[in-house]
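Dear colleague,

Thank you for sharing your sequence with our group. We've completed the structure prediction you requested, and as agreed, I am returning the results in plain text so they can be pasted directly into your records. Please verify that the sequence below matches your submission; if there's any discrepancy, let me know and we will rerun it promptly.
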Amino acid sequence: MPPPAASFLDRAAAGNALAEVLAAHELLARCAPPLVLAIPRGGVPVAMPIARQLNGTLDVLLAHKLRAPHHAELAVGAVDEFGGIFLADHALSLGATGTYLSHETARQRALIQQRRQAYTPGRGAPHVAGRPVVVVDDGIATGATMTAALRAMRRLGATPLVACAPVGAREAIGRLSELADAVVCLETPQPFYAVSVAYSDFAETDDTTVIALLAMAADRP
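Please find the predicted structure tokens below.
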């Protein structure tokens, strides 16, 4: 069976579609304007129209997947910028030993520190305690990165907590529902091939684009 046709032109179009749904969401309607936290890099152009629609504040939430040995695209877990770590049940079966995970975790945490400094120089991660938070990514495959992000937000007291993505694997979305007050995902194709299949244009989002979008959001009146 061939993959289905793309549902979204690009990340900005997907963000606009998500923004319409979130603007009508009962949970968010009862809240103050939320903090809209994008998981870089691809989550940032998706989150931009969401923050605009919800009159929210755009920022980034840094969580990096822990790569499987010899399979860099496959996640065996994820770490967040607040010191948390999530390990998937299948990590050891893919060869992610304690020694390997120690090195991989240190590498990803160093990259997270570099990105925070590059994206928001002079300040750290936003304070989320007691604030409504919407966490945004451009898609959810294994759910490892979003899991780490949501666990961090729960730990730090974000409330209510909403997770969203334009497309995701049904099983992963189901697991996330235990971590957030609401999960909004526009497309959950079965079978799930890859996040990129949902987009006509899935060009890589680079750091320069992330920095520019964050600056643009900061300048918005």
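Summary note from our side: The two ends are 48 Å apart (CA to CA).

Kind regards,
the structure core
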